[in-house]
Please model this.
Amino acid sequence: MNRLAGKVALVTGAGRGIGAAIARAFAREGAAVVLAELDGETAERTANEIAATVDGARVLAVPTDVTQPASVERAVKTAEDRFGALGVLVNNAGINVFCDPLTMTDADWRRCFAVDLDGVWHGCRAALPGMVERGAGSIINIASTHSFKIIPGCFPYPVAKHGVIGLTRALGIEYAPRNVRVNAIAPGYIETNLTREWWDNQPDPAAARQATLDLQPMKRIGQPEEVAMTAVFLASDEATFINASCITVDGGRSALYHD
Model:
């Protein structure tokens, strides 16, 4: 459909899962896409798969550590050197860090925030100067339903994800006069590798999967592609008056009062 024709996009954590689905959807919609991923081999494999399956795809894999500002800045520069001015940034890279608050180490706390909040800021800070100068841009931060709901035993992950929503709103308002939009997507249960790995590590994987499905109003969990198409919308010119907002993609789970 070429909804993103002429746009250049960078997606962090794009080697697999939601990030890979976003990169694939962006390429299908006509964007030039840079996959900025810590695991360079995974990023290269995904980029090659996109190039082989999407006619005319312009994709590039760039090893990137979102915890290091210089690494993110290099990724943005590489994107612009190859494809031109960056118009879309998706801060997707993230990790799960679930601890007991009183036994959590300082290293666990820093590891969570270094990726899940600092990494988002590093992406924004690298992309914003060019977007502000050009007076156009869309930044999409992948938050979580943990950004506004609490599940016991998941500390400090929701603290970082609450911060992502605050960052999104603050930057969205700050740069709205320059036509730079900053929004978030809050996925609920999505069938990614991390979700399947969690099920597989339970004593009864099939029962764990079914228990998750039973919690969902739609009696299924989301697919990465369903998050990806929400990102396509926010990146496109169809969403030019959506700013400092968060779109929840969870099948209605967070609206449910109790089970």
Notes: The chain has a mean pLDDT of 97. Residues 8-191+223-251 form a domain with the Rossmann fold fold (CATH 3.40.50.720). The CA atoms of residues 23 and 40 lie 15 Å apart. Strands lie at 8-12, 32-37, 58-63, 88-91, 98-99, 137-142, 155-156, 180-187, 246-249.
